[in-house]
Amino acid sequence: MAQQDTDQQHAGVLPVDDDGFVIDTEDCEEREAAYRERGTSRPITVVGNPVLHKECRDVTDFGDELAQLVDDMFASQRTAEGVGLAANQIGVDLKVFVYDCGDDEGKRHVGVVCNPKLVDLPADKRSLDDGSEGCLSVPTAYAPLARPDYAEVTGQDEKGNPIKVRGTGYFARCLQHETDHLYGYLYIDRLSKRERKEALRQMAENEPRYPVVAND
Predict the structure, then answer these.
(1) Which residues are involved in binding Fe cation (predicted)?
(2) Which residues are marked as active site?
(3) What secondary structure does DSSP assign to the chain, as a single string?
């Protein structure tokens, strides 16, 4: 896909396509490894921790502290074998998420979004996918959850540049799931009472495969 040769493009961390969306499918292995190798893996907060159940603060400082947080998030995501991670999932009350996620066409997407907002799409772009969903903060539990199979998110990259990200299929689900986190919603909050109870039962009966923060 052609890249725009503009000053705005080169100001951002990632290039953009002709529609102004970031190109997050190039050099994925190298970019993810660079983030991760600079970071330190942190344990994952789980459902019940207060930081997961309230809207996070906007990112306003795009300096070294944020850069280190992003690196730590990629390291934590890899340890937990996740495809997306929000800052409050490692206990940090800031609106930022990272992703390393494939779409339904087999393309890998790697990137960072600060202060994300989901774009309200017209009805003709909102076909529902009722696939199964899980969450690192609800370890070992899964449940079907209908979400649009296409999503657009606006926000900023880790340097503060405005960005737009779009995704289809599984990656669309990831964008919606991680944005939800930063506004205080877990995927189980969108389930029926019965389905939520079942997800929490699954979590209680199994051991997570990665370090978590116990809720005292």
Answers:
(1) 135, 177, 181
(2) 178
(3) -PBP-SHHHHHSSS-BBTTS-B--SSSHHHHHHHHHHHS---PEE-TT-GGGGSPPBPP---SHHHHHHHHHHHHHHHHHT-SEEEGGGGT--BSEEEEEEE-TTS-EEEEEEEEEEE----GGG--EE--EEEETTEEEEEEE--EESEEEEEEE-TTS-EEEEEEEHHHHHHHHHHHHHHTT--GGGGS-HHHHHHHHHHHHHS--SS-EE---
